[in-house]
Q: What sequence folds into this?
């Protein structure tokens, strides 16, 4: 293999190795940047959704106060609390007030009134009687309304219930069990700006058995509606982390479908719900794979350019060496007057100068030898 070919291969190899190193570095750096960008995006969306959910909770409590603050309702309940026993006829005025409250508050689905001793005196609307509050739960209601439960109504609508104290002249006279429509949860979780094709916002709560149940926000039908606690050393389940009160970002998590996801979690102490904002890792990987394909195409283009440039540079660098080699061959063949080009000031030019001096010395030595031989021949003649 001549020097020209070696130079071409060396230049092309150097260019390819350099491009491979730069591409590998760029691929890793961009992958890290995209991951950090996704986590920041999830964190920002989670913070925004938490504020939206807090506003919904405030609105629910305002509706509860709107119902329990009715003066006539409080007076009738105070009178019922002072009476002993249960007389069905006495509940009619209260029930009319409750019916009027349901028509005034569109989100109100059902309401039940209890006396101080936990006696049911009136109710209106749709109430899951099998989930009625126990006397000890009513006894714990003191100054403010507290969230009790979230469930699905007969029509599939999400609903929430509250237990609220009812006061008259700064004295608690009873309590109310109020069921509200929770359709606002869909407004909180429905919009997924910036979360791509697979992003979701989930509102979850813990079941008595420790499973994390999704209240709202499921975007995909596959998978369970609730997740059991993960095993020690297993993949992270962001819904479980959320209902445990853990707030943070997770890059190695698995959702209810078994898909790897990036996730950010928030904890809402009252009512004890978790908030999960997540998106599939595969979607972020799609951008990475697209970048990889772009880098491969760029590498192929640069490789072709490197081959052409290496060939041209190899020809330029080796041309003067080939010329010097040709001069040496012609001098060796007897063309003693030929000389190499000495105009360049680089190493090849210096090599030409040295070669010319050596050639002149050899020519001089050869001519001196020929002269001596000529004289010896002349002296040997008779």
A:
């Amino acid at each position: 293999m001549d020097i020209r070919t070696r130079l071409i291969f060396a230049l092309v190899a150097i260019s390819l190795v350099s491009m491979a190193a730069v591409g590998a570095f760029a691929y890793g750096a961009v992958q890290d940047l995209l991951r950090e960008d996704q986590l920041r995006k999830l964190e920002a969306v989670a913070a925004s959704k938490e504020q939206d959910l807090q506003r919904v909770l405030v609105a629910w409590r305002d509706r509860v106060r709107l119902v329990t603050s009715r003066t006539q309702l409080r007076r009738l309940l105070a009178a019922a609390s002072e009476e002993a026993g249960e007389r069905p006829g006495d509940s009619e005025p209260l029930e009319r007030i409750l019916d009027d409250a349901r028509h005034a508050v569109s989100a109100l689905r059902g309401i039940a009134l209890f006396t101080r001793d936990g006696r049911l005196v009136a109710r209106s609307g749709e109430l899951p009687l099998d989930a009625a509050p126990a006397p000890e739960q009513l006894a714990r209601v003191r100054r403010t309304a507290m969230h009790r439960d979230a469930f699905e109504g007969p029509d599939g609508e999400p609903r929430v219930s509250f237990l609220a104290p009812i006061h008259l002249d700064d004295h608690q006279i009873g309590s109310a069990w109020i069921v509200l429509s929770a359709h606002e949860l869909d407004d909180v979780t429905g919009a997924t700006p910036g979360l791509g094709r697979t992003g979701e916002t989930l509102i979850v709560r813990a079941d008595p058995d420790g499973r994390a149940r999704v209240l709202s926000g499921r975007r995909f039908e596959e998978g369970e509606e609730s997740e059991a606690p993960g095993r020690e050393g297993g993949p992270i389940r962001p819904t479980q982390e959320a209902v445990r009160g853990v707030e943070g970002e997770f890059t190695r998590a698995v959702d209810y479908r078994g898909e790897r996801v990036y996730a950010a979690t928030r904890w809402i102490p009252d009512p004890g719900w978790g908030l999960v904002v997540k998106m599939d890792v595969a979607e972020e990987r799609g951008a990475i794979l697209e970048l990889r394909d772009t880098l491969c195409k760029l590498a192929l283009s640069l490789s072709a350019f490197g081959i052409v440039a290496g060939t041209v540079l190899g020809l330029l660098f080796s041309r003067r060496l080939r010329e010097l080699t040709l001069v040496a061959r012609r001098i060796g063949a007897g063309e003693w007057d030929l000389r190499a080009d000495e105009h360049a000031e680089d190493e090849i030019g210096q090599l030409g100068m040295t070669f010319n001096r050596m050639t002149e010395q050899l020519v001089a030595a050869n001519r001196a030898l020929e002269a001596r031989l000529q004289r010896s021949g002349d002296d040997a003649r008779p």
